Amino acid sequence: MIQEHEPETVRETACEPVLDAGPADPGGETEAEPEATRRDSGATESSRANRGWWDRNADDYQIEHGTFLGDDRFVWCPEGLDEVEAGLLGPQESLRGLDILEIGAGAAQCSRWLAAQGARPVALDLSHRQLQHALRIGEGRSLSFPLVEADAGALPFRDGSFDLACSAYGAIPFVADPVAVFREVRRVLRPGGRWVFSVTHPVRWAFPDEPGPEGLSVAASYFDRTPYVEQDEEGRAVYVEHHRTVGDRVRDVVGAGFRLIDLVEPEWPAWNTQEWGGWSPLRGNLIPGTAIFVCVRD
Questions:
Q1: What does pLDDT average to over the chain?
Q2: Are the CB atoms for 271 and 80 separated by under 8 Å?
Q3: Measured between alpha carbons, how far is 18 from 135 in angstroms, rounded to an integer?
Q4: Strand order across the 35-38 sheet
Q5: pLDDT at 24
Q6: Which residues neighbour 233 within 8 Å (Cβ) at sequence distance 6 or greater?
Q7: According to the model, what pLDDT value does residue 30 have?
Q8: Alpha-carbon span 188 to 151, nearest angstrom
Q9: Bridge-partner residues for 296, per DSSP?
Q10: Transmembrane stretches, by residue range (predicted)?
Q11: Which of 153, 200, 137 is nearest to 51 (CA)?
Q12: Measured in Å, how far apart are the chain's first and last C-alpha atoms?
């Protein structure tokens, strides 16, 4: 455990080890399918909706994608690019002894890989249920690290607590104010620390979220930043995703006080035959699916 990363607020929000928990939402009546729409959604509504969505869907997510992600791999994206190959955090041997924050950690597969390299990771996620899966996977393993349940927009750590921060599709696509998150990340990083995060490639926003040929025709404006919202019969958001153009992302990074040193667009590898939502070999060979931003706190 990394004691200096555990102020009282972290201890209070840490996930309890309910390793044999059943389904997140057992029993009850079948809910109506949410309505998909495009409308504004602020920070509070987005956070509440996405916390609930991940708590309800964490079990299915881990069943569907757990094999691909592995228990202790660092996979950046549906294309299958992993950190062993990419080295976006720096040379693998340089990770030993570093304090590393993973944001939107899910079941903490990436943090588990970091711990195996000798790093001291802290895995943070908004979803209690996802962190329960992290506990389940980590049970009986020799390597352990803190799991923290918290919002990425209000990181419960002291200034300058970490050498490096990373996020593999965690948090950033789901927040209404990414600059606020980036500023929080900068605050908890030490000078010279890297901030590396992957998100859905902005160009995909213009295409239907379909893996087949129907997903290859432009259906919306790339420049329309109106959030994608799924809402219930009362109009309450149950899932929210926010779009930023490539230029927006660059300005957000710079505006939060980072220097962008690389922007990686992983190509679809021949070995990967898996479809993951709208990601597929067909689309992946024609349009980019992921953008990875490599930033430094000066």
A1: 91
A2: yes
A3: 8
A4: 35-38, 228-231, 237-241
A5: 45
A6: 32, 35
A7: 59
A8: 14
A9: 194, 259
A10: none
A11: 153
A12: 28
User: pTM of the entire structure?
Assistant: 0.90
Q: Tell me how many degrees the CA angle 136-170-225 measures, rounded to the nearest 5.
A: 150
Output Rg (C-alpha) for the chain, integer angstroms.
18
**Any idea which fold 34-297 has?**
Rossmann fold (3.40.50)
| Amino acid residing at 69 | L
DSSP 8-state secondary structure symbol assigned to residue 148 = E
What CA–CA distance (Å, rounded) separates 158 from 238?
Answer: 32
DSSP 203: G
Give the tokens for residue 186. Answer: 């900068």
Instruction: State both tokens at 122.
Output: 């802290």
pLDDT digits (tens, 9 = 90+) for 241-296: 999 999 999 999 999 999 999 999 999 999 999 999 999 999 999 999 999 999 99
Amino acid at 192: G
Q: What are phi and psi of 172, to 5 degrees?
A: -60, -45
